[in-house]
Each structure stands twice: as C-alpha cells, then as structure tokens.
Amino acid sequence: MTRRRSRTILTTVAGLTTAGLLAGCSAGGSTGRPDEVDLTVSVWGEVARADLYQEVLDGFVETQDDVTATMEFADRGPYFERLTTNAASRNLPDVFWLTDTHFGRYAGAGALLDLTPYLGEQIDVDNIGEDWLPYGEYDGTVYALPSHFNGQAVLIDQVVFDERGIEYSAESWDDLADLAREMARTDEGYYGIIDPTVGITQRPFEAWVRQHDQELFDEEGQLGFDEDLLVDWWEYWAALRDEGVAPTPDVQIESDSQGFTNDLLVARKAAIRLSSATHLNQAGVLRDGGLALLGYPEIDGVAEDWRFYTALLVTAAANTPAPEVAAALLNTLVNDLESAEISKISMGTPTPTSVSEGIAPLLSEDDQEIIAYLNEERSNPTRPTPVLPETSEQFTASLTRFSQEVAYGRMSPAEAASALFSDADRYL
Amino acid sequence: MKRVLAHVAIIAVGIGMIYPLLWMVVSSVKPNDEIFSNPGLPSAWTLDNYVVGWDAVGFPFLLFLGNSALVAVISVVGNLFSCTLAAYAFARLEFRFKKLLFAAMLATLMLPFQVILVPQYILFNNLGMVDTFLPLLIPKFLAVDTFFTFLMVQFIRGLPRTLDDAAAIDGCGPFTVFTRILLPLMRPALVVTAAFTFIWTWNDFLSPLLYLNSRESYTVPLALNAFLDSEGASQWGPMFAMSCLSLLPVFLIFLFAQRHLVNGIATSGLK
C-alpha cells in the first residue's frame, strides 16, 4: 500500500468517526418506555443522605417492572459542577434536585422535563397544594416539584440566655441589635450575634428586603430593591462588627467555611444566629441541644406578608428515556409517606403537610419543633415570590463578594451598593 | 552564630510548612467535637475515626485505594509510553508541519482544563464510557499531558546528536536509536514523568467526579468528598483519618524518587 493511499484511508476513517460522533451528539431522546429502565438519581450531601435515598429508591423499584435505580451524590459544590457538565452534554441524571437559585438556568435552557402531562396522572398534585406548585414553574410550565421547603428563623443559645436570666424578646431589628449587644462579652471573645452578610446565603437580606415591601428581583428579572436598602443593611451589620458584637470577617468566614461543624453557635462562641429553621437540627446535634427556634425580627407595620420559603425542587431531565417512570419516582419522592419515613427530614421539611405531619412522630424533638414551626409560619399571609432569574446565583455570589468588601473595610456600604448594582446590569 | 540563627530560621519555616500535615494527623486521632475547638493534642486519643472511616462510604476504603492505584499506575504507563514517543519525534525527527504542531502542543499546555472539560465529556459520553475508568486512562496513551512531552523534548535536546549519528552508522533506524540509545539515557526524565503523573492522578478530583458515578468505582478523592456536607454535619474525623492513609503512597513515591525528581528537573532545562 502506498503512503498516499494509506493516508487517504486514514483521513476517511477519521472523517467517518467524526461524523459518527457528531451524529451521536445530535441524537435526540427516544420516546416511549424502553423495556428495561435504569434510572440515575442525583442528590447533594454526604454519604448518610445518599444511603437514605438509596433505600427509598430500592422501595420504589420494587413497585415497578424492569426498573433499576442508582443513586449519585457529591457535596453541594462539586454536585453543581458535575450537573453543569452533564447539562452541557445532555446527559443529566434522570431525576435530581435543584435549589430555587439554580432552577431558572436549567429550566430556561430546556434541560428539564415538562411535567404538565404527568400532573394528575403519575404525579398527585393535591397534596402539594396550588400555592406550592408555582415554585417549580418556569414561564408558566411546571418543570419541578417542591419536595421540601425551609423557612427563616432565629436560633439562640438558650443555655446562655437562661444562665444570664435574659429572655429573648427581639420583635424588631433594633431589638435584635440591642439584645445582641447585651449578650456579647467582647473581652471573652463571645459574640452577641453571628454576621450573616459574609456567608454564601442571601436569605437574611431577602427577608430584610421583603419586610420593606420590595423584592430581590422584579417580574422582569431585574433587581427589585432600592440601593439605599442595601446600604442600610450593610450599615446595620457594620455597626455591630465595629462594636465587637458581631465577629470580624476573618473569624466569620473561617467559621462559615466548615459548615456547621465549626459554627460559632455550635462552638458556644455566639448567642444568636439568623438561620434556616432546619439548622436547629444540624446545629443541635453537633452541640447536644440547648438551642431555641424563634421567629424573625420584623419591621413594624410595613409588610406583614413578607415571609418566604426556600423550596428544594426535585425534577426530571428532558433527556430521560423513561419520562413516565421518572414522573412516578418524582411522585414517590414528594408524596409517599413510607418513603418519607425513611428519608425523614434529611433534605428539609416535606412540602405536603400530610407527609410532614405523618413523619413527625418518628422524629427527634428538635425535628418535630422544626416541622411545627414551619407549619405555623405557613399559616401567615404570604405574598408570592417572583420566579428567580436564570442568573440569580450570580447575584448571590456578588452579594457575598461585596458584603466581604464592606466587612473588610475596603469599600464603604454606598460604594459597594453602587458597584453591586452596576455589576448586576451585566448579568441580569 | 550566624549559622545557628540560619538553622533556627529554617527549622521554624519547616515546622510552619509541616504544621497542616501534623494538624491533620493529630485531628485524625481526636474525637469529632474536638477537631476545631481544640487546636492542641487530643484530650483522649482514639482510633475510632479510622475504624468508622474505613467502612463509612459503603465499601472498605481499600477498594478506593485500589481504584486510585489502578488509575494512577496505568496513567504512569500511558504517559511514559506516549509522551516519550511524541517527545522523540519533536526532538529528533524531521516531518512536515513539525514547528506548527509543536506550537500547537505548547498552546494546549497553556489551555486550562476547564476549557476542554465539556467537549471531552460529550465525546466520552457518546462513546458510552462514562462511569468507567477509560476516560481517565485513554488520554494518557495519547500524549495529552503535554507538560511531560515538553519536559522530555527539552531533555532529549540536551543529549548529543552524535550518539544518534553513531548508531545510525551502525545500522540503527530511528526507532532503534530511540529504544537502544536515547531511552536508557532518559531515566531522570522518565522518573519525573512517572512520579508527577502518579501524584497528580492520585490527587485528581474533577475528572473522577465527572466520569465516575458508581460508588464502587470511586477513587480516593471522591471517597473523601463523600464525608463532607457543606450544609450540615461533615464527618471530619473519619475524613482526616482516611486522608492520612491516602497520603502514604504519595509520601512513599516522594521518598524513593526524590533524588531522581531533582535530577530530572535540573537536567531537562526546566529550572
């Protein structure tokens, strides 16, 4: 064989291989249920949570013919890194969880299964409730179900409050600051309150915004609050930091970086923490109880319907080869009491009240308190939360970044707020 | 006196550098609640973290050590095989577009892994290789770790061409010149390639995260990540215990290959 001929053959083979790969890339998902279905289900968290959900999956596959299911998991950061790559190659797990901040991006990219045909069929929506379905809607289409939810709360070290004979009675933000000042022992390195601004959550600020009758994002997906409101928020916390009532950013960021293990409330180095309700369990277990779960401070007479809930959304991928089976699994993960008895409140409080109340007797006192607190919170009037824009997590990252700039004194609150708004014009 | 002060300073810096490692080892024998609250020695020494950690991810940790060793050893073989051949071609052979291809290779050296992440994943996904070790191993046999190719090109360029010419006069073809003359002289560069490939593969987290989904195929970094829950209670003690165990192979590699590592870097012109 001549060298030229062998080169021609090699070129042809390479071309055909490339064409085959491209064809493979563009192949769409099949329709109808295959004879054998192997579902991949993905969740964030550590191995204990994955084991619980593997048990739930084992129960589910027993009710199905020729279905197997495998659980994937990773810690939250790597979980979303992997999900992004999976989405780019249209190889998402069949069923997986999203946070409300990530939901818009995946739904907007057409990566999620339209659940509308399965509502009322494989998926029982009565238990979830009409108020809760919109959490999984994007552009009027249901792509996800709110399997669990969480609400805002205040956690306090009840032991220290009792020791000092002080009763928690912070109804307003000013009350909260005064109480934190009273609890702080700056000479002993004991803080009155944990600084929520430098961490990775925007929820305390969202509460502040909604209490002022504004929103983080408006219906058009732009920032829905005034710059001054952000300046006030940062000034509120800067004052507490300057007095030593809240930790310095170094201390706070180091504490935040290790999850709850080194949380200042867990380490008995702070008295008050703005939290999610389920943190009562996570912090309580690590420090053998002694915590109390209380309502958020409020701004008198401005917006009583400010409460909002963070929904954990379970969804199916548009690329799943067995959408009916995936929909049935979604129903099990949201509505099935027996499954919830296994997973309990590992992911949060189950959205259907019948499920959360059904599992309550199996739970620890702290967990029962969380469910009772959240169900009571739900009875308050609540105005709808606008759907988060696709790039909402960039706002969260930006808020954290500029909060840290303020905390370290590198920018004034006014400068940082102005920079955050300019930055938001770029990505929103 | 000056010398004593210099030694004291060096020892102090050395202790500072080794402190994180010591902290991890001490933390692995502490009760979980003391790890962050007590920076000193534990109030009670315990091996519980090793016992709990060994089976905590559903399989004995030996399986993950074995998976990592398998991937690392085959990667070493792949890189030694492919990078030496590619380097020999660039350093000694003449072929069309050699300069252009060399520049392309250098360009890929500067390309961040994140850029090729998605296309590479799509390729392996379409080939049905996700959740196997193949996506981690196949690239190693295609000389994609261009750093090592470049390192060996530099090394071969430092070897006298007269050796090749003498072999050619004795009747050696290009391949025999490579295997009989150059390869034996490349030992320091080969050791560097082997050691760094092993260590980087052993510690790699992102590629296994993307390609290995089943727990039984986890490598050590994935298994260690399974102890972590950034939103809740992480099992720090067992994680540190298993981290200590997973450091042993890397430590041994450094111990035995240290002299060659320095030699290989020093003689390849990559100072």
TrEMBL record, chain A:
UniProt entry tagged with the keyword ATP-binding: no
First and last residue of the signal peptide: 1-23
Keywords: Signal
PROSITE patterns per UniProt: PROKAR_LIPOPROTEIN
Record flagged with keyword Signal: yes
Name this polypeptide is given: ABC transporter substrate-binding protein
Species in which this protein is naturally found: Arenivirga flava
